[in-house]
Amino acid sequence: GIQVEQSPPDLILQEGANSTLRCNFSDSVNNLQWFHQNPWGQLINLFYIPSGTKQNGRLSATTVATERYSLLYISSSQTTDSGVYFCAVDPKETSGSRLTFGEGTQLTVNP
Amino acid sequence: GAVVSQHPSRVICKSGTSVKIECRSLDFQATTMFWYRQFPKQSLMLMATSNEGSKATYEQGVEKDKFLINHASLTLSTLTVTSAHPEDSSFYICSALRWTSSESYEQYFGPGTRLTVT
């Protein structure tokens, strides 16, 4: 099956800093989504981005489908950005709209 | 829009009993829902795909007789953990598929159910 690797596994920032999270995947994908899991366990949709670039406030994401990676940028980080960021993909070679998750990046933003 | 609810949020049960978890899409219809399991400090593991009006499709290694899934309507899927044992203790999360075009979709997640089996 498809392999999804996220880096770094852990990231500690001071409030106001910027960061880049990376997601590498081993095969072509139909769907790629970024999620934020808050400390209570709720997954929040950040981006649907199988290709191209999107921005939403302080967050932006870029997926280069031909090179099989996606980047999530967080600017001017805030303590509420803390949590786990997951990348999830749906490979083209299979059907069923099923997402395979990476292991996540644990982000801690200190005041 | 695209809100998914889950109930209960937390449940404690005795070993050998069964527990039912409900997943509802509140503002859209979902012919397809998914059930995931998450252990502490780990990623989400897909357990099964729930299709409205048909049998669920289980991932390899997931016991279908232990984890019963029913998707009786376009807004409700249920997961029943039968004869629960302590090793079934986990965080269970559902998601609902919403098509945004004929070719693209997003999954939206419920808040999760923390199951503790004593």
Descriptive notes:
The complex is a heterodimer of chains A (111) and B (118). Chain A contains no helices and eleven strands. Chain A has 111 residues and is mostly beta strands. In chain A, a hairpin with a 2-residue loop joins strand 6 and strand 7. Chain A is globular. In chain B, 0% of the residues lie in helices and 55% in strands. In chain B, strands 2, 4, 5, 6, 9, 10 and 11 form a seven-stranded mixed beta sheet that branches. A four-stranded antiparallel beta sheet of chain B has the order 1-3-8-7, with no helix packed on it. In chain B, a hairpin with a 5-residue loop joins strand 5 and strand 6. The model of chain B has no long low-confidence stretch (mean pLDDT 94). Chains A and B meet through strand 4, strand 5 and strand 10 of A and strand 4, strand 5, strand 9 and strand 10 of B.
Give a summary of the structure in a few sentences.
With 111 residues, chain A is mainly beta. Chain A has no helices and eleven strands.
Descriptive terms for the model:
heterodimer, A: 111 residues, mainly beta, five-stranded antiparallel beta sheet, 11 strands, 0% helix, B: mainly beta
| Percent of residues in β-strands of chain A | over 45%
Oligomer: heterodimer
Q: Which chain pair shows the most residues in contact?
A: A-B, 21 and 25 residues
Q: What structural class results from the helix and strand content of chain A?
A: mainly beta
**Strand element count of chain B:** 11
Helix content of chain B: under 10%
Strand content of chain B: over 45%
Order of helices and strands of chain A: EEEEEEEEEEE
Rg of chain B, please?
A: 14 Å
Uncertain runs of chain A = none
User: What overall geometry of chain B do the principal axes of the alpha carbons give?
Assistant: globular
Question: What string gives the helices and strands of chain B in order?
Answer: EEEEEEEEEEE
Low-confidence stretches of chain B: none
C-alpha termini separation of chain A: 40 Å
- Give the overall average pLDDT of chain A: 95
Count the beta strands of chain A.
Answer: 11
Alpha plus pi helix count of chain B? 0
Report the C-alpha radius of gyration of chain A, rounded: 13 Å
- Largest sheet data of chain A: 6 strands, mixed
Q: Please state the overall shape of chain A, judged from the principal axes of the Cα atoms.
A: globular
